Amino acid sequence: MVNREDGRDLVPISDLLSYRLSRTSSALSRSAALRYRREFDVSLGEWRTVALIAADPTLTLNRLARRAGLDKAQMSRVVRGLVERGLVNRTEGAGRSRQLALTEAGVAVYRGLIGAANERDAAFAAVLSGEEMRVLDRALEKLADLALSLEQQEREGPNDV
Description:
Helix content is about 65%, strand content about 10%. It has about 160 residues and is mostly helical. The strands form 2 sheets. The chain has a two-stranded antiparallel sheet with strand order 1-2. Strand 1 (about 1-5) and strand 2 form a beta hairpin. The longest helix is centred in the C-terminal third of the chain and has 27 residues, at about 130-155. The two termini are about 35 Å apart.
């Protein structure tokens, strides 16, 4: 434990909430990626892309990239791979935009993936009581709200008074 100038102890990285959440999230993602690759031959990024397109078939590449938290170039590569594999097709939209939609094969893969994702979610929820789940849901909402607010503050730069 390290002492701060004000005499209070600094928390080591292993005890920081952000670090613990990140490690948990990474473990969840790694196990999902392994299962989805083994069962459906898709990467985690491809799974998320397929799921986002299934949830909103009016998506364009730009909107999809924003929702996935990727830049347009990264998302373009993921979508190109899915198009080449016959899971996604692009159709002409308004202006120069192209809408993305799942093909019949893409819908079949999505159904398998969303079933597997729901199984995993149920397994995670099963280790928590109903009250713990409600508390976790509310805590995650609060943390997400704060994280977005802090991100916005960082984007705006330091507040010089």
